[in-house]
């Protein structure tokens, strides 16, 4: 597997149907993206987070050339912490170690920058599978804000998780 920058014209049609229900979409994007995923909206949001935070979008690609994962990453030069956002893998590869391999490659790339001391992300504690996945990778819960997000009649917490560079 390798990581390369996301190319909206080549990759959007591959990733657009990976999330098929509104609740899962909200857990993935915290409603920063419209449901169902729309190319123009994704392009606009990616442009905005690049402008505000320096985010770049990436895809994970198998040795055979298939796009199997997507995420965004930026480094805050004030805190020296990177941040992962919008992490998702193809439904066809879930549960097969692909997400773990993708995140490990993303962390390697992040920590190749000598200024990056840690990488963090936010996950809803109600997304039990995702939270356990990040814990398995080595992320530790830093804090949880209760009732930070509303989805219809549900109130979700927001758990900030962090992994530090091994010295």
User: How much is the average pLDDT?
Assistant: 97
CATH C-level label of the domain at 2-116: Alpha Beta
Beta-strand content: 25-35%
Low-confidence stretches: none
Class based on secondary structure composition and strand pairing: alpha+beta
The value of Rg in angstroms is 15 Å
**Strand arrangement across the biggest beta sheet:** 1-2-3-4-5-7-6
Which architecture of the domain at 2-116 per CATH?
3-Layer(aba) Sandwich
What's the count of strands? 7
Give helix % range. 25-40%
First CA to last CA: what distance? 25 Å
Q: Would you list the SSEs in sequence order as H and E? A: EHHHEEEHEHEE
CATH superfamily of the domain at 2-116: Gcn5-related N-acetyltransferase (GNAT)
Helix segment count? 5
- CATH fold category name of the domain at 2-116: Aminopeptidase
Largest sheet: number of strands, sense, barrel closure? 7 strands, mixed
The global form is: globular
